[in-house]
Structure of CRISPR-associated exonuclease Cas4:
Amino acid sequence: MDLESLKEIRITGLKVNYYYICKRKLWLFSKNLSFEKNNDKIILGQILHENYYKSEKERDILIQELISIDIVDDDYIREVKSSDKMEKADTMQVVYYLYVLKQLGIEKVGLINYPKQKKKKEVHLTKQLEQELLEALKDIEKIVNQPKPPKLEKLPYCKKCSYFEFCFA
Ligand code: SF4
């Protein structure tokens, strides 16, 4: 999928992240049904983000109005996360960043920081991950264009989701 198509469908990094967490969440978010301001986890993430990279100059870099990268330096793009519980979703979000940068002729390595867990994870845009991402992007396009949200399915982390009341009230 090229950059123009990605921009047309407005696939942001967060949408890729949500695709791997819950397809219903992706759909709700894509319709701007957002309750995220009231969610404690989001607030914690924002505080961590603001404090963790305080000294860095190149922070919150918006690229092609598609992706917003926490930090860019010579070799790495860095992303900070408050919890490592959604590691696959975090990894694919960074794979997406690396893919968008590749379309622009820029090669980087991703680095996800989990400060609370004192853990770091390097992410490389391998052929296998790129292929997986391309399949996911096609599926994301289908989901966000559906007239109705995907069927409700109870997931282990629903209670902590900002859409919990919307889904289960
Ligand atoms: S509450 Fe559960 S089903 Fe509803 S959007 Fe969140 S994770 Fe998905």
Summary: Residues 3-168 form a domain with the Lambda Exonuclease; Chain A fold (CATH 3.90.320.10). The chain has one domain: 3-168. Residues 22, 24-25, 28, 152, 155, 158, 161, 163-164, 167 surround iron/sulfur cluster (CB under 6 Å). The mean pLDDT is 87.
